Amino acid sequence: MRKKDAHALLVTCITERKEDFYRLAFSYVKNQEDALDIVQDSIHKALIHIESIKDVHSIKSWFYKIVVRTSIDFLRKKKKLVFVDNQMMDYMNHGKEEVYKDIDLHNALDELPVQYKTVIILRFFEDLKIEEIADIVDENINTVKTRLYRGLKLLRMSISEGDLE
């Protein structure tokens, strides 16, 4: 397939799934501007390296992989600095509980090691199949299943500990 065709497929994939890619980046950084920057950087990287894609039919998984890696790289650079935007501060100051109905889950998810967090987010928040996740994280399918199982176990333990406190 020609470069022009791969480019067109990439643009179509990004256009159709832009909210999914943004949501994935946001799940890592918890900040709108940073998530948008990650998606933008990912698009830039994809356009530069479009020739490196081996199978154009796996362009979705290939781009998910770029978004995940760009998000992880961003977090490494930031070293756990968490900035809260004004909107979040307003919600916190007013104590609107309905906004935070899953806060325990999100906090527990943020505490997981990246390898478990990534697999859980891709499986349950992005609704990807195990095979697609294995392709995105460059791991064996059984490794992904093991990480998913262990990650869910750690998540359960973390949430249970929170209930006891």
TrEMBL record:
SUPFAM superfamilies: Sigma2 domain of RNA polymerase sigma factors, Sigma3 and sigma4 domains of RNA polymerase sigma factors
InterPro entries assigned to the protein according to its UniProt record, in alphabetical order: RNA_pol_sigma-70-like, RNA_pol_sigma-70_dom, RNA_pol_sigma70_r2, RNA_pol_sigma70_r4_t2, RNA_pol_sigma_r2, RNA_pol_sigma_r3/r4-like, WH-like_DNA-bd_sf
RNA polymerase sigma-70 region domain segment(s): 18-80
RNA polymerase sigma factor 70 region 4 type domain segment(s): 104-155
Gene3D superfamilies: 1.10.1740.10, Winged helix-like DNA-binding domain superfamily/Winged helix DNA-binding domain
Keywords annotated in UniProt: Sigma factor, Transcription, Transcription regulation
Family designation: Belongs to the sigma-70 factor family. ECF subfamily.
NCBIfam families recorded: sigma70-ECF
Name of the protein in question: Sigma-70 family RNA polymerase sigma factor
Source taxonomy: Bacteria, Bacillati, Bacillota, Bacilli, Bacillales
